[in-house]
Amino acid sequence: MLTRAAGLVAAFIAGLALVVAAVLVVRHLTAPSKPELPVIPESRRPALEAAARVCAPLSVPLLAAQIDAESGWRPRADSGHAQGISQFAPVTWKEWGQDGDGDGKADVWEPRDAIPSQARYMCHLYDVVKAVPGSETSVGATRLALAAYNAGPNAVLRARGIPEILETEEYVDKIMKDLLPKYRKSEEKYRTSEAKRTGRASASPSVPSSASPSTDPSAPASGDSPAATRQP
To answer: Where in the sequence does UniProt note compositional bias of the Basic and acidic residues kind (predicted)?
Structure first.
C-alpha cells in the first residue's frame, strides 16, 4: 500500500513538474522580445568616425541616428527632391558636397563623399542656430541643428525655434528620443567588444577629444525617413 501511495505521489510530482515546465515555456515564447540595437554598417564606419571629428558637437551615434532617419543607410535613397545616404537636396549639395574619397569628384550617391559633407553641413548649422533661443544647451542646439537640416536653416531662424512643420517635428523627435539613445548603446557595446577583441581599452571616436561631456548631444539629457535636407 505504501509503495502504491509513493508511486502516486511520484507521478503527481512528475506531472506537476511537467505543467510548470510547460507554463514556463509558454511564458518565454509569449514574452515580448527585447528590441535589438541598430548596428552601424562596417563599410560606413571609417567615414562615420572621421566625420564625427569635424566639430565638437558631433558624435558617431548622432550622425548614425541621423543617417538612419534620413535614408535607412541606403546610398541610393531618392525621395524625389533629395538624394543619397545623407539625403541632400541638389542645391544644398552644390554648396556643401565635397570629395571625401579622393577620386576628384563630389558624388552625392557615394557615402564616402556624402557622410563628411553631412558632418560639415551640420557643423555649419550648429553655428547658424546659435542665434536661436534654446541653443544654449547641447541638446537644444542639436535639436535646432537637426531641424535646420530637415526644414532649412532659414525656417528655423524665422520660427526662432523648431518650425511648426509636422514632418520636421517628427524627424527631430525620432532622432533624439528613439534612434540616438539606441545608437549610443550600440556604440558602447561595439567599443566594449572591440576592447575585448584587441585586449586593450579602445578610445572611442564618438566624441572628439576636444569636446567636454557637456557638449556631447549623445549624452543623456533633459520617425521612414522624414523629408530631406531642404534648400538653406
So the answer is: 186-197
Cβ count within 10 A of residue 166: 8
Measured CA angle at 59 (ends 164, 141), to 5 deg? 35
Helix (H, G, I), strand (E, B) or coil at 109: coil
Query: Please, where are the H alpha helices in the chain?
Result: 2-30, 45-51, 60-71, 90-96, 111-128, 138-151, 153-159, 166-173, 180-198
Q: Looking at the whole model, is its pTM more than 0.85?
A: no
Which range of residues forms the domain containing residue 176? 43-215
Q: What is the mean pLDDT of residues 173-177?
A: 98
Rounded CA gap, 167 and 77, in Å?
A: 18
Which residues are known to be catalytic?
A: 70
Q: Are residues 140 and 191 in the same domain?
A: yes
Q: Please indicate, yes or no, if residue 222 is contained in any of the structural domains.
A: no
Distance, CA of 135 to CA of 120 (rounded, Å): 19
Place of cell 555649419: 124
Q: What's the pLDDT tens digit per position in 134-167?
A: 999 999 999 999 999 999 999 999 999 999 999 9
- 138: its cell numbers: 547641447
Q: What is the pLDDT of residues 201-212, one digit of tens each?
A: 545 444 443 333
Residue type, 116: P
Count of CB atoms within 10 A of residue 220's CB? 7
